[in-house]
Fold this protein.
Amino acid sequence: MSLLELREETVGYSGTTVLRELELNIEQGERIALVGESGAGKSTLLNLIHTRLGETAALVPQELGLVQALSVFHNVYMGRLHQRSIWRNLRNLLKPAKIDVDLVMPVLERLRLEDKLFTSVGELSGGQQQRTAVGRALFHPGDILIADEPVSAVDEHQAREILDAITAEKPTVILAMHDRELAIKFADRLIGIRDGKIALDEAASGMAPKDLDDLYRNGDR
Amino acid sequence: MTVRPEPSPLARTTTTFVGIAILCLIFADVAISTVDPWQEFNRMLLGLVTPDFYATDSVTQAIAYTLAFALLGVALANVMGLFLALLFFSRIVRTGCAVIRAVHELFWALIFLQMFGLSPLTGVLAIAIPYSGIIAKVYAEILEEANPAPLKTIPAGTSRASAFIFVRMPDVWAHFRSYSMYRLECGIRSSAVLGFIGLPTLGFHLETAFKEGQYSEVSALLILFYLVIATMRIWMKRPLMPIYLIGAAAILPWGVAFSFSNIVRFLTEDIVPHPLRSGAGMEAFWDWLHMMVIDQAVPGTIATVQLTMIALVATGFLTIVLFPLISPLLLGKASRFCGHVFLVVARSTPEYILAFVLLQLWGPSMLPAIVALTLHNGAIIGHLVGRYTETVSLRQDAATGFNRYFYEVLPRVYRPMLALLFYRWEVIMRETAILGILGIATLGFYVDSAFADLRFDRAMLLIGITALLNIGVDAISRSVRTRLRLQTSLEQQ
């Protein structure tokens, strides 16, 4: 079943064009990896997809968007703020309720953050912060997860664990990744972006990292 | 596994201060004692919407005098402050600056009034002296934070003066300029308030009009006052500065004579404790001191601290309500415009004038002072916090409405807000003491009574105690800020 159809002449912000001649269909249940040079337009495409999908999609932006002064529990709990009454949210802000802590705990266990439950995010390492942001997206009730470089700050072993957790929890996943090998392993569809255009859109099975070399070559410049 | 949330130091400090404030509030007199406050309020509102710009014959003169005192006072303070900032490595200079800024400009004015009478010197020095102490501290901080690298690159043997002019000054000049603009705004407010103790500035006409119930005239004076402050950045251009200063010096009535014997008598006789002056001996002096401390200093200090703590915590609460009014994270453009107007008016109105108005409405109690201090300071910090949120960007899928306010925005601004609040603690206390002149039983009340009875020895002792109290609060505030690692850039707008 089709989830989203994008047909755009140009995409950009305030006068600058980032993406051109965009034609893209996304099906439910797909695992898509966006690959390409930094600055090619991956983040712009992810933001566009997220805007179109709205509330049903959880987002892990590149800059994570964590509230440093709040604990890991609070930041992860924020994935469901919109589903709860303001009173319950206020109560949890002042003193976390056991019922909600019990809901957040399994997510943290998957991401090996359970001992950081009430630690302020500001005190965490870069990798732990990234896992917290992924935790927030996993806690989000939507079936779709959109993430911009969600494993850039963790080692390869942890990256696999996080990607496994993501694919186990969310049927439809769209990620931007710079690690080609990991992208091929994780995704069932690869979309390559080069100079603001979709330069490649193929099934991931059977591909090798060097097949993506073209995306990273400054050919005509 | 049992993981329980530990209260953060920030939360613990907040709870402690809120607890202290509630305790203070329980023992505070906050009754409204006027018979029909609403009727008077309606008359004020009616006056407010029907300003009468021709009621006060000397309105132009009042504005001109207000500006003249502010310009000369702040200019003098800038020169002295910069000079003192360069000597800030010396402990004596640092202590001296702490003492002169711990005494409020109204107290300085009351002192100079005894020495120079209504000569313009009184107004100019009342602003210049405490402001020198404040400016010295701020400029010294700016110089300290400036990038030290360029100093190392200049050739060895360069004189210190050349190094300062070529390397230091260009770096910090912009900071000095923006800070002195902010000080000028404060100076205009101070100058207006000096009218309440008899100088010919706006406050003098405001008080008269208020006492006579001429609310249309009050309205006109206040509107002109806001206009002057709101347009400051338009008319205050650097090339025009010499013209303004010469003009200010020219219009003030320097002809008012004062006698040197008066000044000498004040400094060498009047302020010496009475028992010592009359040769009654040390025992009589100790009795005098004992009487002053028990009857005036202690009750005055208790009321000052009590009012300060209530106002400090109430300011914090009001700030978290007010800053969303101008935050682009929470409100649209049109609502933000209204928010800006409200905050500008609330923070441009000196707390002294606010307290005076509310005192007319509600009668004497701590309530007018609490509301005035909270409104003025809440608007100042709310403005700064609101501006700070302009630099915060939220993730695309951040929550909306109250959820956004409580989870995304408030936790991010809480720390900088506390830093600003603690920074302002000393200012609130200085102002609290002053509000005593209006009849609330803080230290200023006893100071004012002593001046009225021409007992200058008592007045000086009480002013000294007030200064010590301010220095003490400043030290506590600094230690709290260090302990909680609260940092704030300077107290700038």
User: Anything to note?
Assistant: The beta strands of chain A are 2-13, 16-27, 31-35, 57-60, 144-148, 172-176, 189-194, 197-203. The first helix of chain A runs from residue 42 to 53. Chain A has one domain: 2-216.
